Amino acid sequence: MAAWLDIAALLGSDAAMSGQNPVDEPIPTADIAAKIVRERLGWPMPDIRRFTTGIAFFVYDVRQGAENVVVRIGRPSQATALAESLALWGRLAPLGVPLPRILVDGTAEKLPFVIMTRLDGTDLGHVMAGLPANRLTAIAHAVADAQMATARLGLGKGFGYAARPEVAPHRNWGDVVAAHIERSLRRIADNGLFPITIAEGVLARLAMHRLALDAMLPVPFLHDTTTKNVIVTETGDFSGIVDVDDLCFGDPRYAAALTRAALLTFGAGPLDYVQPWLQRMGLLDDDVFAFYVAAFLLDFISEHGMVFNGNQAPSDPAMRERLANLLAQTLDGAS
C-alpha cells in the first residue's frame, strides 16, 4: 500500500478527537439557563428552548413576553474558549462582521455563560428551500462580505483553527487538511459503521493536491457559515452570523466547500448556492475545491451516529448508504 494510503499508521496517532466531553464536569441545563436570566436580567418566568444544532456549547433560546435573548453556557473547562470567542467578536464587529450584541459576560462564573441578543430569523437551512434564487444570491453575497471583512484581520502566524492568529497550530495548510482527514479516519475506525477503506479516494486526492495546499496563505475566515449559523428571516432577509468561537487560517474556500457538502448531504437547498459566494470573493471552484467537498463528506461519514452534547441523530442504514454514494460520486467528478 502506498504511503498516502497507510491508514493503519494514521490511526496510530494520538491526535485528539472533538466531540468528547469530560465526564466529571457539571452539564448545563435549561434550569440553569433560567436561573441565569432571572438573576442577570430579572426575568421571573422565562420560556426556554434549547437549540438542537450546537455541538460545543449548550445554547438556549430564552423568551420573556416580547423579549428574546440567547444564552450560551459551557462546562468549566470551556471558560477560556468562551472568553476568547468574546474577545474575537470584539475584533470582528468593528470590521463589519454582523454578530449578535453581547448583553452579559459571565465567562468568569463556575459555569461560564454569555447572554446575547437574538438575531431575527432562523438558520438558513430551515428556510432556503423556499427562497427564490435572488434572495439566496443576496444571502451568499452577505456571507462573502462577512468573510472578506474577517480577512481584514490580516494573515495568521500559522494555519488552522484558533481564536488568535499567533496560536494557529499548523505550519502549513496541507497539515490542517491532513489532520482533518486523520480525525475522520479515527472516528470511522472507532464507530465501526463504515469500512476504513472508504477514505482511500480522499487520501489519494490529498497526495495529489498536497503541493497546492502547502502553497496557500493563512487567510483568516469564518469556518462554519454553512446552512446553519447564517441567520435569515422566513422571507430571506440576512440578519447575521452566530456561533463564531474561533477562526480558521488558510484557504477561505474551505467554508464554502463545507456548505456544498452539507447541501449534498442534507438537501436543504440548491447546490449552486455557494457559486455567488465564491464569485464575489474571486475564488475558484476547481479540483482542489472538489477535494475539499469530498473531505467534508468523509467528515460527515465519520460523525454519523456520534452524539455531541446529546444533539446528534442516531445512525440510519439508508443515510449511511447515501453518504457512501455521495462520496463516491464526488470523487468520480474530481481529479
Automatic annotation (TrEMBL):
Domain Aminoglycoside phosphotransferase: 47-256
Transmembrane segments: none
Keyword Transferase recorded: yes
Top-level taxonomic group: Bacteria
Entry keyword set: Transferase
One annotated GO molecular function: transferase activity
Keyword match Transferase: yes
Name used for this protein in its record: Aminoglycoside phosphotransferase family protein
Provenance organism: Devosia ginsengisoli
Highest classification ranks of the organism: Bacteria, Pseudomonadati, Pseudomonadota, Alphaproteobacteria, Hyphomicrobiales
